[in-house]
Design brief:
Helix content: 25-40%
Largest sheet: 7 strands, mixed
Strand order of the largest sheet: 13-12-9-8-7-6-15
Number of strands: 15
Structural class: alpha/beta
Strand content: 25-35%
Distance between the termini: 20 Å
């Protein structure tokens, strides 16, 4: 498949403008799958405005994204503040919208709440993983800080994920860490890892980028330039998983008695 990783600078609080920027990226990429960053719809540092900017998954933003996906025959993954209608709670959510109208969503399990990060002030914690069943393959969804917890990626791999799609709002200070852990997630699970970060400056946070595609043996499939809006286009062949797992059979050799104490009841929902 042809994948596009859109490293974009959203306008905080302007959902309409950000959707237009997303559509422009989709139109120019001509890809099967496109990722945009964490909370791209609203901007990451919307703070108290999240309450007004958040929408349910059947709201106008997701409907607009569905139209974009259908028009360009591209599956989209992007971040948004989600409002749960029943409780009015907010979540930091990754949304997948397919050209056929299918919608899958994942709520960030580990909202970052340290240093410059204030996610715990606004968002609840997700309670499970989402393995999206698409015509392109089975896609495991994660958001930024979640990548630092290898049990999440391993759970996806054990449940049959074909690739990991990680959207992010990671500042420049974290880029060296992501450059190390992302190839590790790919290698240890013999899975392609797609990572799309924001770029630009929002209040006190500078987003450097670091957007990249990594093959199932840790190979570099494409990287974005730092501090600049751009779209990385890469070819991902899921047939490579069989070869990677023959050379490094980590999933075959994962021992149940060692795995279950780490994540005995980690729920993986198929959507």
């Amino acid at each position: 498949m042809r994948v596009a990783l859109a490293q974009l600078d959203p306008t905080v609080g302007d959902k309409a403008r950000n959707l237009k920027k997303l559509e422009a990226a989709v139109a120019s990429a001509n890809a099967d799958l496109l990722l945009a960053g964490e909370l791209f719809l609203s901007g990451y540092m919307a703070r108290d405005a999240f309450a007004q900017l958040a929408e349910p998954l059947d709201g106008p933003a997701v409907k607009a994204a569905a139209s974009i996906a259908q028009e360009h025959s591209t599956t989209l993954i992007f971040g948004m503040p989600e409002r749960e209608e029943a409780t009015k709670r907010l979540f930091n959510t990754s949304v997948l919208v397919a050209p056929d109208g299918k919608v899958a969503s994942y709520r960030k399990v580990y909202p970052a709440n340290f240093g410059p990060f204030e996610e715990g002030l606004y968002f609840g914690r997700g309670d499970g993983l989402t393995l999206a069943e698409t015509k392109l393959g089975r896609i495991g969804l994660l958001i930024c800080y979640d990548a630092f917890f290898p049990e999440l990626s391993k759970a996806y791999a054990l449940q049959g994920a074909d690739l990991l799609a990680i959207i992010s709002a990671s500042p420049a200070t974290s880029k060296p860490l992501f450059d190390r852990i992302l190839p590790a997630r790919a290698i240890e699970n013999a899975l392609p890892v797609l990572y799309a970060n924001l770029v630009g400056t929002e209040l006190n946070i500078v987003f450097q980028g670091g957007t990249q595609a990594i093959g199932p043996r840790g190979e570099d499939l494409g990287k974005a330039a730092d501090f600049a809006e751009s779209t990385v286009v890469a070819d991902v062949d899921l047939r490579d998983l069989k070869t990677a797992r023959a050379f490094r059979p980590t999933l075959r050799d994962t021992r149940k008695e060692m795995w279950e104490p780490v994540a005995p009841d980690l729920p993986v929902r198929r959507q």
